[in-house]
Amino acid sequence: MKEKIDAYLLQELHRELSDIEQYDIDPRIRSVYAKALELYWTLSRLLGLGRLHDGRWRTPNPAKAQALRTRLEGAIPPPAERNRLLIDMTATHRFGGHSGVQRVVREIARACVESGKGLPVYLEAGRLYGHFKHDNLPDAIELQKGDKLLLLDSGWGFVEEYPPLLATAHEAGAEVVGCLYDLIPLRYPAATAVKNSAPFMPWFEKALLNCDAIVCISQSVAHDLIAYVREKRLVAPDNMRIGWWPLGADFRDCGKEAPSKLAEQIASAPTPFFMSVGTLEPRKAYPIALDAFELLWFEGCDARYVIVGRPGWNTRALQRRIRRHREYGRRLFWLDNASDADLSHLYPHARGLIFPSFVEGFGMPLIEATHHGARVIASDIPVFREVGGDEAVYFDILDPQSLATRVREALAETRKVRAPAVMTWRESAERLAGMVGSGLYQINSVGLAGALKSAK
Fold this sequence. Notes:
Elements: H1 2-23, H2 27-46, H3 62-66, E1 70-71, E2 85-88, H4 90-95, H5 101-115, E3 119-124, E4 127-130, E5 132-133, E6 140-141, E7 148-151, H6 162-172, E8 175-180, H7 184-187, H8 194-197, H9 200-206, E9 213-216, H10 219-232, E10 241-244, H11 261-268, E11 273-277, H12 286-298, E12 304-308, H13 316-323, E13 332-335, H14 340-346, E14 352-355, H15 364-371, E15 376-379, H16 382-388, E16 393-395, H17 400-412, H18 425-438, H19 447-455
Parallel strand pairs: 1-5, 2-3, 2-7, 7-8, 8-9, 9-10, 11-12, 11-14, 12-13, 14-15, 15-16
Antiparallel strand pairs: 3-4, 4-6
Helix pairs in contact: 5-18, 10-19, 11-14, 12-17
């Protein structure tokens, strides 16, 4: 399977490089730009300003960070005085964002602070502060014995800040629990941007593998973690525990926001449509879905394909292919800045969700679609089998013909809206907080070392 994925990535990389050669700026201007950029990198490092382009957001500044805190209204319970669950959301606090990891962090943090089960925090200049502002919530937080610090966010963008935090936590008698979303930057580095994949290994080895426990967003990720540590012979604490919990599927407060006109037009038109949700990036395999619909359109199939996702890394050729497609605006649509209201409006009207990714840590669109009663057609990969179960339909990975067959079958079926069978974000947060608070993980007493032995 890995050979098939690698071949696909090479093919898409060739398309992207060809696009640059065909459409990019004049070679002489490109050369001047490259030299100027090289000079900028050199001078900025000499002046101690490498953070401007090395993936670090800024120098620590508690005053500026305070301005990014979120104000809460209403009845927020005060946090526990002892044995607190502190939820690190530093990256989301600094950068914002509403998709992928940021959605998980925002939903879990909000649900935990509203229920009083957890206190969301961010790291600044080596200290922890409360992310939310409320009369019942503290500003600065000092780690103390019995606390559990959950590293829920994507901290690999500033990995150097975390080893001192882990040391401080352990010195105070607190437990540190890491969160692993996937191992994609390590398993498939060609499928991720270098700025994201390069710092992930130091984060994985210096932060994650030095935690007391690790929670994963799926059982598949947990098994992959065990396999990877075994393959690379990495060192981890013998008593490390591993667990996993399911993510939520509902959208918070989207009923107050109206969907866009394009989303309303797509949903109200009589021609059936299928949709894919997620940032345009190599591992999402959007070209496979587009190839499948081109096969269907060639046969005369009058179904529409709607892509909902922001433009991502190394997909300029794909973006150009979409926007210049002869069906664009007719049977092919791309919502590149959709809101939660757009998704909530599109999901119930779609004939189905198409999820062509060749690797995922969980696949939130899958459960979001199920939550809204839409059928799911997904790549046949382990995590989708785990999350989608028998409710989803699967096609052969990276195979447009197989996907086209599943779309034909979906069009021939009488559409039945199923009752939601997935949990809400509040339930997801309760499951996570309960596991971390109790210390009862799925791989618990044997520790990581024992899990490695049993996995052989």
